[in-house]
Amino acid sequence: MKEDFVLFPETLLLISKKEAIEESGILEKGKILVLSLLNTKYRWIELFGEEFTSKVSFFPTYEKLGLDPGEVSQHLANIKAWGVTLRDPESLKYFSQFKETLKEVFEDLVPEIKLVDQEKRDKKAEILQAVLTLELAEELDQEVSGIWKSLQSVDQKYQSIFKSRIIGEDYTFEEFEAPFKVDIPIHTNLEGISARISAWKVIAPILFKDFNDFNDKVRVLVTEKEIVEMWENPEEELAKLFAKKEVDLRTIEVND
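-> structure tokens emitted (256 positions)
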């Protein structure tokens, strides 16, 4: 019997955790179920290749939530454009003095979420805000993994430069330490965990309400110790989040 696990709370695995996932044996019993956002599958393939990605099932998030991908894509473009503007020191100085103006600007970027902080919440607005949060988090994870992957290859590239200068095959060639050292931060922690969990609390009950593969029990894969430690009873909290009676929680340890 297959045992598929929902990856929580990220939608794109950090590349530094791939080995731990493979060693866990989870992929021998089933697949990893991932919420599919605008570019999720493409990013998995780009980062991990076709073979590893074939062990991942992509859940049709937008279809289940009734969201328009084009609309969300436009909101993301507007938010990122403003992010670039805020990198300018003068803009940052101005908005730091007028925080209320900054809030109004962001509300104008995504007018649908204006009601989210009010007593009368609009469900569609909450869903949109949650998905935007996860979209931005996925982009951040992609950037982190891309940098980590590039840094990992620096030493290999350095050695290959000297090997390429040798005519023929030199079996006496020994690798040597580069005259510079790249201190590679092995990034194994997600950023913005609380924001991600808040987003899941909004959309998970909708997405998995009628998901027959799980019935009353959901299997959850967590790669962050912080999530398990932040709750007194993680299984109980996850059961509430997914609106299920029972949770089979699997945690993956990644050594720093």
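Residues 5-251 form one domain.
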